[in-house]
Structures are given as C-alpha cells and as structure tokens.
Write a structure and sequence with these properties.
Oligomer: single chain
Distance between the termini: 65 Å
Radius of gyration: 23 Å
Number of strands: 11
Strand order of the largest sheet: 5-2-1-6-7
Largest sheet: 5 strands, parallel
Shape: globular
Length: about 500
C-alpha cells in the first residue's frame, strides 16, 4: 500500500489535518494585529503565542494577532519557513505518558528583515499595535553584568544613538517607533519582556529609556512617564527543533517545517500594568498580579539556576540531555544537594507553592524523558546565565554566612567546561558569545585558578571573597586531577 504524503501545512490544508489534531477554529483572515513580537523563536510560539491562540479559540482577542519580527540576518531563515506555511505552527506536547499535537494560528505575518529595520519601525508605529513583546535572550538587553546598569558604551547602542532613524537593535527600533507615535499623537505601546531576567520589565524600561535619552531626552521622558513595561515570569521547557522533531511531526501526519515540541507545563505571571489595553490572557491560564517578584525569584533560582547546575557537569561527562542528567546518579544527587543546601534557603514561597514543593515539581519536569532538551542548548551563553542566575544566590550565601561549596563547584565545572574538552577527550565546540575569552581564562586557570575569577566583567569582587575563592580553587584542582565523576562523588561525601 502506498502512503499518501500530507500536503504542506497552510491555511488551505487545515481541514486535511489528521483526526485528533487541534486547529484554529477562528477565521484567520479576519484577525487584525495588536502585538509585535521581536525574537520569534520556539519559546514564543509554544508560550505567549499559544495563550493568544487559546483566547482566539474562544472567539476573543481577534484584534490581538501577532506580527513576528527579527533584527538579525539569521532571523531570515525562520521568516522564510513560517511565511511558507502562513505562519502556522504545530505544537507537540510531550508528556511522559502521552503526546498531542495542536496547530496554532495567532501569528499572521513575519515582518521583512532589512538593514535599518524600517519595516519593524513602521509596524510598531501603527496605533493598532498596543504591545511589543520580546524574547531576545537574557544577554540581549545591553546590561553591564557587574553593575546591572545600562551599557551605554556598547557599539550597537552607540550606533543607534548616533543614527536613531536607522537602528541596529530591537531597542533602537522601539525608540524610533515611539518617536513616530509621539509625533502623530498616538499613545505609546506597552513593552513586554518575556526573557528570564529578574525584573525583566524594569530592565526593558532601563534599556529603552536609556537609549532614547542618548539622542532625545524629551522623548525619553515621554516614554518613561506614559509608557508601560510590566515585569513578567515565563516558564515552559521548549527544546530546539532538530531532525528528531521534524521526523516526529511527519510521523504524526503533519508537513510542518518549523514545528515546536514542549513539555506539558506552562506558567505566565504578569504585572497588570499596561498602557493601552491587553488580551485577557488570564482567561486561558495566565496570572495577572501586582507582584511578580516572588514568582520570578522562585523560578529563576530553582529552575534557571538549576539548569546551569546540571549543564556543565553533563557536558563534561558526555551526557546529552537534561533528562539524562536527572537519570545520572551523581549529577542528579549533586543537583539536589546544591538546591536544598544552597539555593532553597534564599527562595521565598508563593501562594500555593513552597520552595520545596517547587523543587519537586522541577525535578519531575527535568526528568521527563520525552523532552530531549540538549545540554548544549541549556549551557549556551553561560557568560550571561551564570551572572544572571547563579551569582546572585552565591552573593546571598556569602552575605548570610551560609555554605557556598556547591555553588563554587558549579562555577568550577563551568570553568573546566570552557577549557573545551570533555572528560573522554572529545572537543566541546564554542558555545558562548564570549567563548574565546572564556577559553583563554579557563586554560590559564588550570594552573592558576584565580585567573578564572579575575574576569571582573563576570564576577566583580566575588573572586576576592576568601571563602568562595578557596572553595573554587579546591574544586577546580580536583576536577583537573581526578575528573568530573570523582569530583562529584567527593562533593556528595563531604559533610
């Protein structure tokens, strides 16, 4: 018998999807845009776009459709794939005991990517756009990693300040659009960061207002006074799409060239501070609150920092995924010890959830074998993730006189990983925007551990703290002498 290959995913083929696959029940041609999303990757499509799609399924939010956008040349490939299938996305939920597919349609266009970002600026200047949301990674906000202040001296920022009508960055494009809106008498849009940063709305405000102030102080004051930048906390594990995911979607009878897999968990907590309206995302599971801080602290410190606790040990021991790390006796035991002894003491509970219960939830989610979340993806950009997720906890531990042995080991594992070879001798390919600098410091630290901690842009004055420096030197030396597994065993046996 000859199997019929499915037709490529598009508006015209939605009716032909296999039985049991959810699909848009709304008229996509009747949707009008209300959101521009910059940095349109897998996470946005599995998370924020899904919430909007679910509202549309209820006959709501028809004027809140999403326009995708990118500001870098490499975004063009994603744009081409999505436009070829009418910006539809197949989401595949992977639970430990089942899987399900749903085609979502809240996104209706992907803006052209041009030097100077003219199409993006014009779209955001349209008064129909009331929210501009972003997922541009934790390291994409031009923050000085030590001071936490806006990095006004970065070459990209200097360019946008000097040429505000031809911006290079997403934030320069936002400033240019806000200038046009102000001149036309339109209100500003709400800027909504969906990245894993503590106080991400405040950071987005800092970057947008700080950049505007370099070229137009009056505009900066208008944005700061009349605009809105709500803090938010986002959570769902969404792996990168590779050959396995492409094969899976075809196995399910859907010809989608840009599918997304995700776990069977989502959470979105948002400050209810919008300046020009918002969708009722709370009707489909989001939480609006006046205090996001406790939620984001719990998630960033236990989940995001926890990812980094696992990732470098996994890379050094050639363990491919987070789920495989949780199945590895030494790595998973190290994870639990660091969490319970050194992270949970610096986390407060939220309504209905204690830190201990949240850790148990995270352990179950991380151990889901259906989610092939690669160590390489999780370990990427450690130069942003360690200062953002781990070092604040380490500072709290030192300030309160608590143990930092486990966190010092995690930093030593990162330094050892950046030397570029696993314990089995295989090469670790560059996996950080600052890989050359990190690799040089890691190589020098093999014989002089203080060379790693002397990276002031990462550690500031932490490297001079005797308790941390001594523990780091001891663990890094042991890693080089005995290897990763023996070092983890030594840590687990220590009192």
């Amino acid at each position: 018998m000859t199997l019929t290959r499915p037709e490529p995913l598009s508006n015209a083929t939605l009716a032909d999807l296999p039985e049991g696959v959810e699909r848009p029940r709304y008229d996509r041609h009747a949707l009008t845009p209300g959101i521009v999303h910059i940095g349109l990757g897998n996470f946005h499509r599995a998370h924020q776009a899904w919430y909007t799609h679910r509202l549309m399924q209820e006959g709501l939010a028809q004027d809140w459709a999403i326009l995708g956008a990118g500001v870098r040349p490499y975004d063009a490939a994603m744009r081409e794939r999505l436009l070829a299938q009418d910006c539809l996305t197949t989401l595949i939920e992977l639970a430990p005991d089942h899987r399900a597919a749903e085609v979502t349609g809240a996104m209706i266009d992907y803006l052209p990517i041009e030097e100077g970002n003219g199409p993006l600026v014009r779209a955001m200047a349209d008064p129909r756009i009331r929210i501009v949301s972003l997922t541009v990674t934790e390291g994409g906000y031009y923050i000085d990693p030590v001071s936490g202040c806006f990095d006004a001296g970065h070459p990209d920022i200097a360019h946008d300040a000097a040429q505000p009508d031809r911006p290079r960055t997403a934030f320069g494009a936002m400033v240019a659009a806000l200038r046009l809106r102000r001149a036309a008498g339109h209100p500003p849009f709400t800027g909504l960061s969906c990245d894993n940063l503590r106080g991400n709305g405040a950071i987005l405000r800092q970057t947008v207002v700080g950049l505007a102030r370099l070229s137009d102080p009056d505009l900066a004051d208008w944005i700061d006074t009349t605009g809105a930048f709500p803090n938010s906390m986002v959570d769902s594990i969404v792996p990168a799409t590779g050959p396995e995911e492409l094969a899976l979607v075809r196995e399910m009878g859907i010809a989608d060239n840009a599918p997304v897999t995700h776990e069977n968990f989502r959470q979105w907590v948002i400050e209810d501070r919008f300046c020009d309206g918002r969708p009722d995302w709370d009707r489909v599971g989001a939480t609006f609150t006046d205090d996001v801080h406790a939620y984001e602290m719990m998630k960033i410190r236990i989940l995001n920092a926890g990812h980094q606790v696992l990732a470098n040990a996994g890379e050094l021991l050639s363990v491919p995924t987070i789920a495989d790390c949780m199945a590895h006796p030494a790595i998973s035991a190290m994870f639990r010890k660091v969490q319970t002894e050194e992270i949970l003491p610096h986390v407060d509970g939220v309504p209905g959830m204690t830190p201990g219960a949240y850790l148990a939830l995270i352990e179950r989610r991380f151990a889901n074998p259906a989610i092939r979340d690669t160590i390489r993806r999780v370990a990427f950009d450690g130069s942003s993730r360690h200062p953002g997720f781990l070092l604040p906890i380490l500072r709290d531990g030192l300030a309160t006189g608590g143990s930092v042995e486990g966190l010092a080991l995690v930093e030593a594992l990162w330094a050892r990983m950046c030397a570029g070879r696993r314990d089995d001798g295989t090469v670790i390919e560059p996996n950080d925007p600052h890989w050359a600098q990190l690799a040089a410091a890691a190589d020098e630290a093999r014989n002089r551990p203080g060379a790693w901690l002397a990276q002031g842009g990462l550690y500031g004055d932490l490297g001079q703290h005797p308790a941390f420096a001594a523990a780091f030197e001891r663990w890094l030396g042991l890693l080089w002498r005995t290897g990763t597994e023996a070092t983890l065993t030594a840590y687990l046996k220590a009192a």
